[in-house]
Amino acid sequence: xxxxxxxxxxxxxxxxLVSTAVFxxxxxxxxxxxxxxxxxxxxxxxxxxxxVLAYNGLFAAALLLAGATADRSTRTRFFAIGNIVVAAxxxxxxxxxxxxxxxxxxxxxxxxxxxCAAGGSSMVLAVYPPEERRRVYGYAGAVLGSSxxxxxxxxxxxxxxxxxxxxxxxxGAVAAxxxxxxLGLPGLRNPxxxxxxxxAGAVLFGVTVAAAVTALGLxxxxxxxxxxxxxxxxxxxxxxxxxxxxxxxxADPAIPVDLLRIPAYRAYAVATxxxxxxxxxxxxxxxQLGSVQHLGAGEAAVxxxxxxxxxxxxxxxxxxxxRRLARPLVTTVLFACTGTAAVLQVTGRPAALxxxxxxxxxxxxxxxxxxxxxALTYVPAHRGGAGAALFSTTRMSLExxxxxxxxxxxxxxxxxxxxxxxxxxxxxxxLVVHQAxxxxxxxxxxxxxxxxxxxxxxxxxxGSGRSRGR
Length: 470
Known about the structure:
The chain contains 19 helices and no strands. The chain is mainly alpha-helical. 54% of the residues are buried. The model is unreliable at 443-470 (pLDDT under 50).
């Protein structure tokens, strides 16, 4: 771990928090702008959804490679370059002459966003000791929750003021500020080489994710030949098979499987995926239930506020609670989400919808950033980028699967059944956390430094095992 002054550590944290605020706005803003962009720019209308899908897909595909690269490079510079890429693509997106060029720019922006996320985590974990990471990720949760809650409002305001180009320019400008914040900071590069770099594994992982996301996206498009998505899914399956073979033989795999062997790390990754799944499904299903119950515009706005606003004001309180009560807090909240989804299976009255939105919003606000902070206390400082990238990849995968399953069930049985899917995932996550995380792991009962040393010992044991196998 690097020893910096208090002021320098705060600058590292501020740079990461500023960059963190960009991602939700980049997603919600682009989503809101899709209709206007599709109507005003020349190009096939079917490319409209890819303005969001290309960004998300390349972000997920590049995240693991970005994390491994961040840990092996000058962390501050890597983070700054990622933000510069986001800033440049945001500016050029506003000037895009047609839809194909905009989609291409958004794909590059997704790669830049992966560099920001992985580089920022790598910086923070390299300068903050394990016992302070819960507090740090409380701040990150507050910023992320606020961005998620305010993103749609900010996006609509930007479009009202300057049209759709502003929803790309403003996040880019914020990313530029994050890059400037790193000026004068130490490079934070490990003094010793990190060993071999499993580029083949990282590239295969990225191609697998990119092909799968593209196939799923094409599958929902009208007039797409069947062989397009089918061929991409075959590519994804072939790359996944090759990835398994490469990772088994690699001395230092791109996917840090030794972290996945830590029950608490794995359990908290599942928990945060369940929370995000409940959020995205709730944002989709509750308004549909409200329209069935003929909620007025004011009531619908209150319902969405109850669902999102707590995530802007409660994360810092959650960080304090997590010092000693992380495990019971996370499991109780997951059970509460499950119970709320169950209640909505038997009643959909307006009062019940408002109460459900309030309970889910309170649950999400009280746990925003908590699983992240808990899991990352088990990650050694020199592997912060890879550990955070793997955590985010696990979360995004479960969130995507939950949303996909809920969407299919909603189409067949209605929005309440979609919420039941998210509730079932929360129930499974609660059981996983309750079983995998020992009660003594909360707060100061177990020092995260010892957890990190256990991770290093586990990694060394795994490495020696691989050496003996070879």
